[in-house]
Specification:
Length: about 230
């Protein structure tokens, strides 16, 4: 059990030190220097963002990439922006988080049975990582799932995250049921090394683009984590 914590810690150290995509290094550091006016007195993280949560998690959330003035500023997944407000609020209502607020790395937020990671670890311009950037970052996702041996549910937040999860299945595991077409609440059963019964549960990403247009509502997001709870009971 202790070795699993050490494995995730080691992966996170490698993630934080990564400079493999020169264009992303330039962008994330430029944002950290220029800052948004509302955060001009703050010191931005400006580095790749590591995973966050319970290293013994049975539920793993895979997001897209850090937000330029959210995670790229705070250094923690889905922290400091509107997407995080939606996500951690839903996790708290589902009893996966001790409180709904995600302000910075020192806010006391603790996740239980959940770990959050992403397809890409650096903030990309326009929040759109290139296929090459996604491919470069993919080994970190592989390493994390190799270390997480109790996974029962993978929640993919958005199409890019869903594609990354299914690439992982193709490379390291197998399909129990055919891959479901991406859509909110779509489910696919897969097998991964050490985790023979895993459900990939797709969700729309809690981005402003989705939440402000009604594409994703709070009841819809709550339904994802209610379903995750039920899957853990099987």
């Amino acid at each position: 059990m202790a070795s699993r914590v050490l494995d995730i810690t080691a992966i996170n150290r490698s993630v934080i030190a990564c400079r493999a995509c020169p264009e992303l290094v330039v962008y994330r550091e430029q944002i950290a220097r220029e800052k948004r006016r509302a955060y001009r007195e703050q010191t931005y993280w400006g580095r790749p963002v590591p995973s966050f949560g319970d290293p013994h998690a049975r539920v793993v959330l895979v997001g897209l990439a850090p937000g330029a003035h959210g995670s790229n500023r705070t250094g923690r997944m889905f922290t400091g922006d509107a997407s995080g407000e939606w996500l951690y609020g839903a996790l708290h209502r589902a009893r996966f988080a001790n409180h709904p607020d995600a302000v910075d790395r020192n806010d006391g937020l603790v996740l239980s049975d959940v770990l959050i990671t992403a397809a890409v670890r650096c903030a990309p311009p326009a929040n759109k990582p290139t296929p090459e950037q996604r491919a470069t970052c993919f080994p970190y996702l592989e390493a994390e799932f190799a270390a997480l041996r109790d996974v029962r549910v993978i929640v993919s937040l958005g199409k890019i995250a869903d594609d990354a999860v299914h690439l992982l299945v193709k490379r390291t595991g197998s399909y129990v049921t055919p891959r479901a077409r991406f859509g909110h609440g779509a489910e696919t059963r897969v097998a991964l090394p050490g985790s023979p019964q895993v459900t990939v549960l797709a969700s729309y990403h809690p981005s402003r683009q989705n939440t402000q247009t009604g594409v994703l509502t709070k009841p819809m997001l709550d339904a994802i984590f209610t379903r995750a709870r039920k899957l853990l009971e099987k």
